[in-house]
Specification:
about 15% strand; 12 strands; 8-stranded parallel barrel; globular; about 325 residues; TIM Barrel; alpha/beta
Length: about 325
């Protein structure tokens, strides 16, 4: 009796490698980095191994990443509380810590691609991604106007890829127009096209100090409902129409089905953000001895790639680069 024997393709490590369908490439991983105004590097308690870096520390870290063959970083500012206000005014200050940091990195490593978020949450005292009106609602159009100014300012100090992470309606088209009108036609837009109102963001908010009062902060009026799939397609296609160069799904691991469905709807490069909460989960379970750290880390990243992500923003990027030859 004849029957198929798929195990023949699994019998030896060399054969398994030859027929492997999905691979992790360090060139497809982007390391998120946090920078603050302090002179020392400060550990982020909820994210083992991750620090808020001084500008000097950030430049050193970027140098290490370049040596390891990493091609891009995403830089997030941790803004001093006294500089925050309801409108995120310091986002446009010339001595904004993000601007200082990006300029230092680009001066030292001009070939390293620098990505910066376009959102107001690091700069607002309430922690929202936009401007709050007198009724306590996030004002979409006023926020988009502020985001356009921030995107142009980021482009002006050397950011290669601006990444609107705010989920305001119409912001991709408005930012594209603002960049083009300011002479930054070559600056790319990586849109957080599909960003869910997720519980996986809290360690990140700890790192950048954007949590405000976490018991009261509610972003569900602009970030997506975790129950929805069709809405993800709608959001992604709108951003394609408005001129995004790349799309992103966030979170990644709990939303593999969303990565797949968006991948099937567009030819644009697709990124996924393995969030701070996903990173913290793996570390916490490994520290308790419940999971093998390296195997779980690699499997989680491989699953994101397998689902259809071309690029992954992950706090594991440096670790993977340290052990990868390609």
């Amino acid at each position: 009796m004849h029957f198929d024997r798929p195990r023949r393709n699994r019998k030896h490590p060399a054969i398994r490698s030859l027929v492997r369908e999905t691979r992790l490439w360090k060139a497809s991983l982007i390391q998120p980095l946090f920078v603050w105004e302090g002179g020392e590097c400060l550990a982020v308690g909820s994210m083992p191994g991750i620090k808020k870096l001084s500008v000097k520390g950030l430049v050193q870290e970027c140098g290490d990443l370049v040596q390891l063959g990493c091609l891009a970083v995403a830089i997030f500012p941790s803004v001093a509380w006294e500089r925050k206000d309801a409108r995120g005014s310091c986002s446009l200050d010339s001595d904004n810590i993000l601007f200082t940091a990006v300029q230092a990195v680009k001066k030292s490593f001009p070939g390293l691609m620098v990505i910066a978020d376009v959102a107001l949450d690091p700069y607002t005292d309430h922690g929202h991604d936009g401007i709050v009106d007198s009724k306590g609602h996030v004002d979409n159009d006023a926020s988009v106007e502020a985001l356009c100014k921030l995107a142009v300012a980021e482009a002006g100090i050397g950011v290669d890829i601006v990444a609107p992470s705010d989920m305001m309606d119409g912001r991709v088209g408005a930012i594209r127009g603002a960049l083009d009108n300011a002479g930054f036609q070559e600056v790319s837009i990586l849109s957080y096209a599909v960003k869910y109102a997720s519980a996986y963001y809290n360690p990140f908010r700890d790192a950048v100090g954007s949590g405000g009062n976490l018991s009261l902060l509610d972003k569900k009026s602009y970030q997506m409902d975790p129950a929805n799939v069709r809405e993800a397609i709608r959001e992604a296609l709108l951003d394609v129409q408005e001129g995004a160069d790349m799309l992103m799904v966030k979170p990644a691991g709990p939303y593999l089905d969303i990565i797949r469905v968006v991948r099937e709807q567009t030819l644009l490069p697709l990124a996924a953000y393995q969030t701070s909460g996903e990173y913290a989960q793996i570390h916490a379970a490994a520290q308790l001895g419940w999971l093998n750290y390296k195997q779980t880390r690699d499997e989680a990243l491989l699953a994101i790639r397998r689902a259809g992500a071309d690029l992954i923003l992950t706090y594991f990027a440096r670790e993977i680069a340290e052990t990868s030859s390609s």
